[in-house]
Design goal:
alpha+beta, six-stranded mixed beta sheet, three-stranded antiparallel beta sheet, 11 strands, 18% helix, binds zinc ion
């Protein structure tokens, strides 16, 4: 396995990485940076496991959490309402509001990607944060931030158009304000990843 060594852009400490991972976490100062063409610092949060989460198979999964203003300009759906998106835009009570979109950063198969993205985007996870991983391994991130922002559009469309053909047109704007990495807790089980929240 190839070992990569880079230096922390904040404190210059060496960071060793044994696997292909766009994210580099400095053990000395806790700075997270991403190498996806450039070297950029990334804000991040580590979510704590629920007390009820099993110890076995604990794994952290990095997500890009896109914070954006979402505005529906026009819509036309037949045979269904814009039920999901209408509920999703909280606070605004109309066709515009601030939203979180959760885009999984590891290399998942399409069904797993879709399930995790739509589940967390439809129901924003609540968690308390912690300062370290507590010895729990984490999956590598393979998705650059720019790709995550593009995929945020796919997540929005997928959320509403679960029934093929229902959504005819949807014109909207997505004004991205912030993107950060959230490490969410999971348990790896024979049936796949289960949230440990
Ligand atoms: Zn550092």
């Amino acid at each position: 396995m190839k070992v990569i060594q880079v230096r922390c852009p904040n404190c210059n400490s060496p960071i060793m990485s044994k696997q292909r991972d766009l994210l580099f976490l400095c053990q000395q100062c806790g700075t997270l940076h991403v190498r996806d063409g450039g070297v950029n610092l990334v804000d991040y949060e580590i979510a704590d496991f629920a007390k009820s989460a099993p110890i076995q198979g604990r794994t952290y999964v990095p997500f890009w959490r896109i914070y954006a203003n979402f505005t529906i300009l026009s819509k036309n759906s037949s045979g269904g309402s814009m039920y999901k998106l209408a509920n999703w835009i909280k606070g605004g009570g109309g066709d515009s509001g601030d939203v979180f979109i959760f885009v999984p950063a590891p290399d998942f198969d399409p069904p797993t990607f879709k399930r995790l993205a739509t589940d967390f985007t439809a129901n924003w996870p609540k968690y308390s944060t912690r300062l370290d991983f507590g010895g729990v391994p984490r999956l590598p991130a393979n998705l650059p931030k720019e790709e995550a922002v593009k995929l945020a559009h796919f997540v929005i469309i997928t959320m509403e158009a679960e029934k093929p053909g229902v959504l005819q047109t949807l014109d909207y704007t997505l004004d991205v304000k912030d993107a950060r990495i959230i490490f969410l807790p999971f348990n790896s089980t024979p049936d796949g990843l289960r949230p440990g929240l």
